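Quick one before lunch.
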Amino acid sequence: GSSSLIVSFGEMLIDFVPTVSGVSLAEAPGFLKAPGGAPANVAIAVSRLGGKAAFVGKLGDDEFGHMLAGILKQNGVRADGINFDKGARTALAFVTLRADGEREFMFYRNPSADMLLTPDELNLELIRSAKVFHYGSISLIVEPCRSAHMKAMEAAKEAGALLSYDPNLRLPLWPSAEEAREQIMSIWDKADIIKVSDVELEFLTGSDKIDDESAMSLWHPNLKLLLVTLGEKGCNYYTKNFHGSVSAFHVNTVDTTGAGDSFVGALLNKIVDDQAILEDEPRLREVLRFACACGAITTTKKGAIPALPTEAEVLTLLNK
Ligand code: ADP
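Model of the adenosine-5'-diphosphate complex:
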């Protein structure tokens, strides 16, 4: 595992998942509670692999908020960057994969605690001690958490952290597609590492092509690594000096939730103490193979957090 700190900024929430699959939310006979939120998943992914991680964000001072903070701590993630809002409740998401194959989302966010994090509440000492600062929060959407997001990002950068960004586009949450694109691109050139999914690549470029040309159209001069994840097709990587792809592993997929977060957590954990990997293609490919294995394992169990692998599980898949 790594010995330097990875700080992940954003939201943590409860996903309510129907007890039976292939139904609409309105038809669900009941729901299972699953802890979620991409930035929290990334922090736990790092910790489960033996790395050091902290989560920064705001939860409700309610049953769900304390349950989520407990889950972070049980998983070895530092929780001293968490604030609890006295008034607002913890964010909730209702998520289902309907029979027609479409994913249906509904959010309790009016407003939820995560949206109310203010710049003054940030644990700057913690943020400044990060070697890698990861963000990818839906909290870019509204104030005051948008300002908190910007301040945290800048504090980490000033203190010398490597910045990692995953836009985690959840389009229904945005007032409009144009605004989503604008806000995401407004912080694009701050990041050293960016990971987008194939869907996000299409959305951000406005083209339905998922090729090198469209990926490179998102390149910015200070970027060190751009990753495009392709689900069961693996991932493509781009740096200033080289690019290529890494294939996915064949596994028994039951639920892809959290695969991207697992992939990112694995990558960050490998480079946090050895950033030279970013300039060394053979070593980077090894790390991306490891990250793809993590993503693959995460799809073999229901839910994100319960499915995040340990290093030993990843090595077993790699050596198969
Ligand atoms: P995102 O959550 O960003 O859309 P992906 O679903 O592409 O990310 O998953 C991230 C990585 O996890 C992929 O690059 C791939 O290596 C692995 N992965 C995802 N889905 C599968 C799958 N069905 N089978 C094998 N590996 C997968």
